[in-house]
From TrEMBL:
Its EC number is 4.2.1.1. The chain crosses the membrane at residues 241-260. The keyword Methyltransferase does not apply. The keyword Membrane applies. Residues 18-261 form the Alpha-carbonic anhydrase domain. It catalyses: hydrogencarbonate + H(+) = CO2 + H2O. This is Carbonic anhydrase. Belongs to the alpha-carbonic anhydrase family. Its cofactor is Zn(2+). Reversible hydration of carbon dioxide.
Length: 261
């Protein structure tokens, strides 16, 4: 089942000239004009207002992901990024016919509380974490940067995360976080399979809407696909993310702001 959201609605996979932080998010529009746009993300997904679109079942969403060798895991000072070097693409579903969207990277979004880490909410309910699989239209554009802000340029597949069993597909990531405690640190892992992040084998239960990146430059014309059913990771994996990444990022922000003041 695929639902289209009518809400008029921020991940920055590209490069910014200005530094930014979540603490001044309300002021992003002063430096990044797109943040003042009409279709900004994230949004609350209201299941009662979603419109069921049966036509999306006729052309199913079709990820063709391949195992990535020598992936780079990065702490960029805001989040953890998994940069992929293999040619993984997705087609079909709500995407333009005969267009391929290439998977560029995976990003993590979490909070300081187990129950409120996701950027999007479902009926105003938050999840502990949210993963973003960031794609760009490789049929129309040469790079992700070229695709930013362009119609049909960027696709983000979002996955909510709940706490339960260990997620074996993310084990290679959570095990290296202790080496990524500081901004700019990176680690090469030998193997990562993005297929393990897809929770629904039939790829049918999702919401779709047009929004924006959720961080500067907050570019719009982003197609969002959000899976209804969350993937599961263990409490220990969440603790690794919290201890090794969140606390160090928070300490850096507090220390930096204190010095500036």
């Amino acid at each position: 089942m695929a639902d289209c959201m009518n809400d008029e609605a921020h991940d920055n996979p590209g490069k910014d000239e200005l530094s930014w932080g979540y603490e001044e998010g309300v002021e992003w529009g002063l430096h990044f004009p797109a943040a003042n746009g009409e279709y900004q993300s994230p949004i609350n997904l209201n299941s009662r207002e979603a419109q069921y679109d049966s036509s999306l079942l006729d052309v199913g969403l079709s990820p063709n992901y391949v195992v990535c060798r020598d992936c780079e895991v990065i702490n960029d000072g805001h989040t953890v990024r998994i940069v992929l070097k293999s040619k993984s693409v997705v087609t079909g579903g709500p995407l333009p016919s005969d267009h391929e969207f290439e998977l560029h990277e995976v990003r993590f979004h979490w909070g300081k509380e187990n129950q409120r880490g996701s950027e999007h909410t479902v009926n105003f309910k938050a999840f502990p974490m949210e993963l973003h699989l960031i794609h760009w239209n490789s049929t129309l554009f040469n790079t992700l940067e070229d695709a930013l802000g362009k119609r049909n340029g960027v696709l983000i597949i979002a996955l909510f995360v709940q706490i339960g069993k260990e997620h074996l597909g993310l084990k290679a990531i959570t095990e290296v976080l202790q080496d990524l405690q500081y901004k700019g640190k990176n680690k090469i892992i030998p193997c990562f399979n993005p297929n393990t992040l897809l929770p629904d084998p039939l790829l049918r239960d999702y919401w779709v809407y047009e929004g924006s990146l959720t961080t500067p430059p907050c570019s719009e014309h982003v197609t969002w696909i959000l899976y209804r059913y969350p993937l599961t990771i263990s409490q220990l994996q969440v603790i690794h993310i919290y201890i090794y990444i969140y606390i160090y990022i928070y300490m850096y922000i507090v220390y930096h702001v204190t010095l500036v003041i």
